[in-house]
Structures are given as C-alpha cells and as structure tokens.
Amino acid sequence: MKRLILATAAAVSALSAGAASADVVKVGLIASYTGAFATWGTQFQQATEAYQATHGNTVKGPDGKEHEIQFVYRDSASQGPDKAKQLAEELILREHVKFITGLELSPYAMALADISQQAKVPVVIENAATSSITRMSPYFVRVSQTVAQDVAPMGKWAFDHGIKKAYVIVSDYAPGYDAEAYFIKFFKAAGGEIVGSARTPQQETNFSAYMERVLQAKPDALYMFQPAGSPSVAFVRAYVERGLKAAGIKLLGGGETQQLFLPNFTDDVIGTVTSFHYTETNTNPANLELKAALKKKFGDKAEPDIASLAAWDGTMLIQQSVAALGSNAEGLKYIDFFKGKKWDSPRGPAMIDPVERDIIQNIYIRQVEKRDGKLVNIDIGKEEMVKDPWKIDNPPKSN
Amino acid sequence: MPAASDLPTSAARAPHWTSRLALLGHALPWVIAIVYYFTADYYLSFGTQVMIWILFAMSLDLALGYAGILTLGHAAFFGVGAYGAGLFAIYVSPDPLLGHLAAIGLCAVLGVVTGAMVLHTTGVTLLMLTLAIVSVISEYANQANDLTGGDNGLQGMKLAPIFGRFEFNLFGQTAYVYTLIVLFIWFLIAWRIVHSPFGRSLDGIRQNPRRMRAIGTPVWWRLLAIYTISGAMAGSAGALSAHSTSFVGLSVLNLLTSGIVTVVLILGGVRRIYGAFIGATIYFVVQDYTAKISPFFWEFVVGGMLIATVLFLEGGLMDIGNVVRRLLRRRHGEEGR
Amino acid sequence: MLSFALTVLLDGISYGMILFLISVGLTVTMGLMRVVNLAHGSFAMIGGYVAGYITQRGGNFYVAALAAALAAALLGALAEVTIYRPLYRKGELSQVLLTIGIVFVMTGTITEIFGAFPYPVVFPDYLTKPIDIGFREYPGYRLFLIAVGAVVAAALWFLVENSIYGARLRAAVDNARMARAVGMDVSVLFMGTFVVGSALAGFGGALGAGILSLEPSYALKYIVLFLVVVAVGGEGSFQGSFVAAMALGIIDTVGKYFAPQAAAYLLYAAVFLLLLWRPKGLLPPKSVA
C-alpha cells in the first residue's frame, strides 16, 4: 500500500513538473458564486481578471522563461468546508495548481490546513478573517484582513469621541465573536461601559426586537457586526426605522457601509462611523488603477469592495512570486517570498508579517457622508500599520 | 399505484434474455464502482462522495419510498452520524470501525425516540414535525461551539488506519474501498428487507394504512421499525462522510442536505433501491460538470433536469429502463401487458 | 411596560401580516389542488424584484406593488397551464421534485439578471420614518404593513365567506369530486385561485421586502416559513393561515426579544408542540377536521 502511495505521489509531482515546463502556472481560486455568499466569487474573479487585463497574465521567471498565470475558478456554492476541501483536492490532484486562493469564509480556509501541508501547496487567503487561521499551516499567507484587526481601533476612538456607554450586537458566528471580544476589550480599556450585548442568528434580517432592547438600554452608541449582504443592510435599516438615530444613539461598525451597499440605505445612514481597512474613495494611485481597470473591463457600474481589493493584491503577489522564483519552486519558498513583503496597495501601505504570514495595514476610521448627491465613506482618522491584536494576545508557542 | 415494475422481474412470463439482462443490471453498479477505482485518475474522492449519497438516498427510499413516511428531516440522522463518528474519533478512540458502529447505534436510538414522537401523524404535518426536529438539532450544533466547532467545523479528527493497515490519506483509496464495502453491505440488507414479507407490508401501509390495520398489521410498530433502520443507515452514511474527509461541518445538518437527498432519490426513482444509485450519480455528475462551465449555469441545468424528469418520466430516471424495455418489446412483436 | 409589550405585539403582527399575505395563496392551492408547491416562494420573490426594479428607477411605490402582484399573477397563470396542470394527477413526490426544479431555475435566472447582492425596494420617505403613535414612536413601515394586511385579510374573508366564488372554493376544497359532479368548472376555479394566490404572494413579496430581504436565495430560504404557516394553520384553511401567521410572527418576535440565543429553538419547538397538539392544524377546513 505504501509503495503504491509513494509511486503515485512521485507520478503526481512528475506530472506537475511536466505541466509546469509547459509554462502555465495554474492557480486555483475557490469561492462562492451561488447561495448565500454568492457575491464573493464574482468580485474575486472580476478583480483578478481586471488585474491581468492591466498588468498582463505572463511573467518572466529568473531563468528568462515566460510563465503564464492561469486562474482556475471553482464554486464552493456557499456550502460547507467539506466542499472547499473536496474542490481543493481536485484542484491539486487533477489541475496541478501551484497555488490556491480565494476562500471567503474562515471554515473554508481551515479545512485546507491539512491538505496544504500534505501537498505542499501555498494558500493565499483573500478573505477568511479569523485570526488564528495563519497559525494552522506554514503554507498559509493572508493578504486581506482579520476581524480583530479591523475592529481594534474602534473602541478607543469611540470613547475618545464622547461615547461612554455602548451596546454591542454581533452576528452569531466566529467572526462575530471576534468583533465582540475586541471592541469590548479596547472600549473598556479606554474607560467605556458596556450596557448590553446580543448575538443574532447568522442570516437574520428581522432585527426589530433587538433594536427595542437597545432603545431600552439607552446607550450612547450601538456597535454592530453583521456579514455584509442582506443582514447588514437590514440591520442599518432597522436602526433607522426603530428611531435609534432619532434618539441620539450613534451607530458604529465595520464593513457594513462599504460603498457597494450604500445605495441600499436612505440618507439616515449618514453619520455612521466605521473602522475598516479599505475606504473606497481614497485617492491612492493603486486604488485609482484598480477602479479604472474594473470599470474598463466590466462597465461603469463595477465597484470594488474588499473582495476586489484582496484579489487584486493577491494576484499581484502571486505573479510577482513566480517572476522571482519561477514556476517550479517548493511551496515554502513561495511563502518565504511573501514574508516581509511591503507594497502600495489600493487600501494604502500594506505588509506581510514575516513571522505570522498575516497582513499588517492601516485601519481607517470613516464616516458616512453625502458628497455630490452620493453617499460615501470619508476618512476621519486612522491607525497606522495595525498588527492583528489576537496574535499579540496569543504569542506563538514555537515557530 | 403499484406498477408492475415495482415487483422483481417475474421470470414466469418474461423471456430468457430479460432475466440474464436483469442479472447484468444487478452487477453493473458494482462493476462500475470497481472499474472507477482503477481509472479515476485522482478523482476518487468524488466517487466516494457519490457513494455516500447513494447510501443516504437508499436509506430515505426505505422510509419515504417504501413506507411512505414523509420526512424532511433525514439530514438529522446523517448529521448526527457524522458528528457522532467525528466526536468519537476525537474523544473516545480513533478506530474508525468502532466509531462507525457507535454512530449507527446513536442514530438508531434517535430514530426510535423521534419516530415514537411523530409517526402517528401524516402528510404535511409529519413533514413539518421532522423539519422541526432537524432544525432544533442543527441549531444546537451551531451553538454548542465548544463541542462541534460551530461553523468552523469539527477540527482535529485523526483517524487510525482500518485494521491497523489501511490508512486514510490525500489520495483517498482507503476511503473509497471502505465506503464501497459499507454501501454493499447495506444494499444487501435493504434488498432483503424490501423483498421480505415485512417489506411487502410496508408497501401496503404506504398505500392504505387503514386497510392494513383492519387486517391486523401493527402499522405503527412497522413504521417505527423501518424508520429506525432507515435512520441507522443514514447515520452510517454520515459516519462515512466524516471518515472520508476527516472533517464534519454544519452543512451535514442543513435543511438543504435533506432537500438534496430527497431530490436525488425522487430523481432516480423511488422504490427501486437502484433509484438511489442512478439519482445520486446523475445529480452530482451533472452538477459537478456544469459548475465548471459556469456557476450559475448548473442551477439552470439541474433545475431543468428535474422538471423534465417529472414531465416525461413517470417514475424517475429509473424509468428510462422501462421506456427502453417497452420499445424493445414492441419491436419484438410481443403482446403488450 | 405596557408600551413595550404593545411594541413587541405590533412587531409580531406586522411580521405575521407578511407571512399571511404570502402563505395564504399556498394554503389554498395546497388544500384545493392538493399540489405541494415548493416554488410558491418564487412568486413572492419575483413580485419583490419587480417592485424593486420599478422603485429603484424612481417609480411610484404603489404602482410598483400593483405591478408586482400583476407580474406574479401572469407568471402564475402561465405556470398553472403549462407546468402545474400535469401535476395534479402525479403523486406528491413528483410535485416536490418539479417544484424544486422550478425554484432552482428561478434562483439561477434571478442571479443572472439581477446579480447576487441584496436587491432593495425603495419605499416612500414617509414609510421609512418613525411615526408618533401616542406613547412612543413606531416605524411607519410596520404600521403600513398591519393596515394593508388587515384590509386584504378582511377583503379575502369577505370573498371566501360571502361570495359565490368563495362558496365554490370552499366546496371544492372540501370535496372536489362532488363539486365537479354538481357541475362546477373546477379547472377554471383552480386556475383562478392559483392566479390570485400568486398575485397575493407577489404583493406580499414587494411589501415585505423590508423584513424578508430580496436576494436570489429568497425562494429556498423562506419556503420553510410559508410551509410552517400552512401546516400549523391547517391546509386549505384561509382563517387557519391567518391565525398561524399571527401566532408564528408573535412567537418569533417575542422569542428574539426575551431570549435571543434561544429564539431559533423556540420557534421550531413551538411549531413542534403545536403540530403534536393539533396535527390537522389550528383551524382546518371542515372536511378534514
């Protein structure tokens, strides 16, 4: 049995080596195109294609040879992590991908920890935001964000700006727990008081009862964490409809007011303050390039969100790593390339932590305002080069 | 309405070659499975998943197809079997066969308990009761984060090699053969049940429970028995799912999972045992293939396939065999029935 | 204390109104035509998307809501003639399979045309603001839902109880064979009822977009809720679906308010107990009770 396995393994690597010398480097992108998380797949793919349309999809390796970077897309269909695992297996064993990327949900990334090590394939995480993920495999590197990182500056900023009492409502899943923990930690550390908290069912869109409780507790602000999509839209609407805004309760959050979702709200969303790693209206050259590339390839309505951002940077870094190391290097060598990398991302300056293989970036405090008749997020503060606080609280045992 | 095709081929009237054809038909799925093992080209795990769903659908056939128990909650057994096997491996013993048996036992108990509570009802009421059960279990699994891992899934399953020799790995050979053997065993059991007097009585119960009671059949007990067996079988499929991927996610307890297995079974054809085989294979192959072309496309194709099957094939895809048989008979000029 | 209790009640009732509007069509068609229609949520979804499309381009909300009902009605008529008619003779399982197939196709179509992001219906300004109802401010939108729902429910009740059509409908639900035997054109009745049920669903989908968010997975996500209303109320019972919708709306809201963690359990546990207590539904039609 063992001999059969080794023989097959050797055959697989021989085949992949053979495939690579045909100068095509395949990258598997696993994301959801259908189901509850259907927006991620399309956003990832569009940004990837836009990047390749602008910067080309071939790079010259160190040996002077041309390598084409070809993305192979697979739909995880908003199903469970076992689906992601199955897709990854297929991509590795049949398509001989050299990288895996995409992965909007943390469970998807977690499910790949074992495979990435067994098959020695680097995984470039483009959204999965649970802090501990990058510790699960030395082949994991993340270019997007962690929830704790996005949330970190909010607590202190809130207290410093007149909010003494806060009520916290998060969605009932792991990222929600992270947001709850880190907002409360930093808010309390600054001197604030938490007057109540609740966890809402994951895809809930009916928040009236929760809003009632907030009204009763009379906080200065309500802090929210909801998955971007119908829950976040419904939450902000409920906040307005139930009269919380009229009662003077401020709304604080994170990714709920991304540009893409603002058209869903009325002007009552103006004044909402969020902490997030990407403000779409910023004028960084890289951001302008991303927006132009998207509009050129997909029409005027194409708007970037954090999925687009991560896919843009992810594609860039993957292509750069192949340019530096060629198409035949060992998985860990590609990971080493990512370590310590600094670049000017559309979001602002960004860096990959050389020890944790996780992203370090600015977190911006923004407020929703109306400019030229349109609702936008405007930066009103920032914290620079924030490292994921969970990693700081939980130093690695041995690395 | 019981169609003539429900009963095994009545050798008395049919000519020689149809019974030989029938034998070939019986051997076919197993031959295909064995050939696939050698030709799958690293796609073995897909085959393993299809076989797991065949087993799952077959279990539903016993409850829904033969006994007429309208259930939307079969994922409860699948999920409890999967989590049972997973938790057993983590906390009790990494031996996969012990874990498998534990999962089966657990699901049998669940079957008896829940069946006792709901089997006196019928129709939409029964449907909604089974739905409520699986929803409560699913919600519990979601909230019991520390036990189940919540929606990150059950992490840390490390299985020991079967019989100490055959280990689970990336290529999935052990998982495939293990699943195939388990499927074959359950198939034999299901076939035996369905062709026994007990099985025949289920047919009667499905069609007219009142009359069955009138002739003295202990209807409720029979229903409970088949529901329990069906639950144990579905639990076995769940255990296989956990073992073959070394992972259990919340989706095993999903309503969608219940829905898909129902669709798969009806698509293939109920009360045929083999309907499960055809339904699962076709559904997943079509979905897999069309998903690669375009993610949205597969919804159209699969949806269209379901609609077409209902409109044109009375008894699901298995009926293609009947249609062919009818055409052949007409060609051979035999007296039609 | 009283004001708060009243608020929770109003919340539950407004939610229940939407459930009623959408589910009443389902319960009547299931009771009358004995068809398990899992695609019913699609009609609500389509109505919602039509209303969303019109209001996003600045169209009048009321026009959009009527257009929603009309679109769903037309689609219902088309579907009844082409797809559902052959279904009457086939068994329940075939109906399940076919209607799920329809849901898949609808979901794929909506994603293709409108994309996967949540699709808003733009409500008129005065509906998005809280209204002073004496002891507190309460969302105008919810009051609107209660008012509209009550009017529609009353109209339907009147129709069902006091009109010839209603009498025919109740007769056919009780005993279709007998109804045919006394000369009723049952197939026209089926068609008309299906169309009205679909129109109501479309209307409910449009109005309810502030509670049941519009997205491609709408049909699959909410069909369970509608089926629960039908089962708990009693298949084929108009009054039953009203009472069940109210009960479920209130239980769900109360649960979320007092025990947010247990809210999900609470609803399904309540359904479980209700059905065990009254397997035929709370107010089943006479022939069934």
Radius of gyration of chain B: 20 Å
How many distinct beta strands of chain A?
A: 15
Helix content of chain A: 40-55%
Which segments of chain B are poorly predicted (pLDDT under 50) over 5 or more consecutive residues?
A: none
Secondary structural class of chain A: alpha/beta
> Mean pLDDT score of chain A, rounded?
89
Distance between the termini of chain B: 16 Å
Per DSSP, the total helix count of chain B is 14
Report on this model:
The complex is a heterotrimer of chains A (399), B (337) and C (289). Chain A has two domains: 2-145 and 283-357, Response regulator (Rossmann fold), CATH 3.40.50.2300; 148-276 and 363-393, Response regulator (Rossmann fold), CATH 3.40.50. Chain A has 13 helices and 15 strands. Chain A has helices at residues 2-21, 38-55, 81-93, 106-111, 113-119, 147-160, 174-190, 208-217, 230-241, 285-298, 306-325, 331-338, 389-393, and strands spanning 24-31, 58-60, 66-75, 99-102, 123-125, 140-142, 165-171, 193-200, 221-225, 250-253, 273-276, 342-345, 348-352, 359-371, 374-386. In chain A, helix 2 (38-55) crosses helix 10, helix 2 (38-55) packs across helix 11 (306-325) and helix 6 (147-160) packs parallel to helix 7. Mean pLDDT of chain A is 89; it is low at 1-8 and 16-21. By secondary structure, chain B is mainly alpha-helical. Chain B has a domain at 43-254. Chain B has helices at 16-39, 44-66, 75-91, 96-118, 123-143, 145-148, 173-194, 197-207, 209-214, 219-245, 255-268, 274-293, 297-312, 319-331. By secondary structure, chain C is mainly α. Chain C has a domain at 16-118 and 163-231. Chain C has helices spanning 2-33, 40-56, 61-84, 92-114, 125-128, 140-162, 164-174, 176-181, 186-207, 218-233, 238-258, 263-277; strands at 130-132, 137-139. Chain C has a two-stranded antiparallel ribbon. In chain C, a hairpin with a 4-residue loop joins strand 1 (130-132) and strand 2 (137-139). Classes of the chains: A alpha/beta (399), B mainly alpha (337), C mainly alpha (289). Chains in contact: A-B, A-C, B-C. Chain B binds chain C through residues 64, 70, 117-118, 120-121, 123-125, 127-129, 131-133, 135-136, 139-140, 143, 255-256, 259, 262-263, 266-267, 270, 296-300, 302-307, 309-311, 314, and chain C through 30, 36, 83, 86-87, 90, 92-94, 96-98, 100-109, 111-112, 220, 224, 227-228, 230-232, 235, 261, 264-265, 268-269, 271-272, 275-276, 279-281.
